Amino acid sequence: MDERAGDIVTSVESTVEAMFREERGRLLASLVRRFGDLDLAEEVASEAIEAALAHWPAEGVPSRPGAWLMTTARRKAVDRLRRDKTYAARLAVMQVEVERAAPAPPADAAGDLPDERLQLFFTCAHPALPAEDRAALTLRCLAGLTTPEVARAFLVPSAAMAKRIVRAKKKIREARIPFRVPGPDELPERLPVVLQVIYSIFTEGYAASSGPDLQRLDLAEEAIRLARILRRLLPAEREVAGLLGLMLSIHARRAARTGPGGELVLLDEQDRGRWDRTMIDEGRGLVPVALTGGPPGPYGVQAAIAALHDEAADLATTDWPQIVALYDVLLALAPSPVVALNRAAAVAMRDGPEAGLALLDELAGEPRLRGYHPYPAARADLLHRLGRRHEAAAAYREALDLAGTEPERAHLRRRLNAVETSGPDGAAGA
Prior knowledge:
With 430 residues, this protein is mostly helical.
């Protein structure tokens, strides 16, 4: 193969990869709706991609690659069903529908996002599935990650993740979980599960639970992409707007959250000139959408908090009274020890470290904060500001033992060293 031919193949492979990642949710959703089998849909979708890699380098990328992939996958599904006698009865019923099906819409049809993809969101995030299975299945089916990529996201072996995904599919099949959008009476109960799955994916991308890197930008960006799809599919749902606004406002700081060597940079030390202002403006624009037209939801309130951080020139000029007030609303809507922890940190900025520490100490017996390193780290910071050096050092050591990523551990080691080399208790450290 000469160099030019090799470049063509490489270009086609890149086009196919980009197209598949973008179109995977649409392709799978349409195939699952038509054939009622998620495993079959995944297999023939992969075969369609292989066919594209075989044909497109010689024949050129078609003008409607998404439609080409859909047609190819449908044909392969019918061929596979013909060979499988257990599907014979079902094939006889669906054959006419497949043959008469209208051509798939062009992949680039403006604003044309099939309802089938929304159905796939709710199938992958069905409450009957264990929480960890929901996120894994969403990443596999809607974000288009491979099983090894999903395994890396959850820091488990590929074989274990493969079993988890198989288990989720089996549960869908055996429990006869319907492939449909919930009715208006069911949506308020079911939508939060979908939003929670997407936000869990984003959270792992924003602050990885372990590993050498602080951020997994690929996961964070996939979560935002999924939220954009959901926003276009459910434009009237204010909490969808809130979730997207929240993630955009946080992700806008990504470039400033780490230093040249990947080290953690806290909010008060970040170069705000590196924040993505276009993303900040988009996130802020979604806050009024999320907070008007009815009672506020948790994601809308969190989006408002994130927007206040983004609007401030520095930590000192941040509107801490408003942030504390919003945390009060959030605690009433979605009480949790993590929300209480974040509120205590905001109170410390508004009223001083002693007030914040008193609130943190009230959370000392909370079992859900055991093993959560931001809690002892927050206590250590406030104790250090109060000059209580020995207590601060002990809290930093506790946080260091719990921290999952190397950048977080390195940051805590630096803080611990600063405390141990500072002045005696009762005097503020350096």
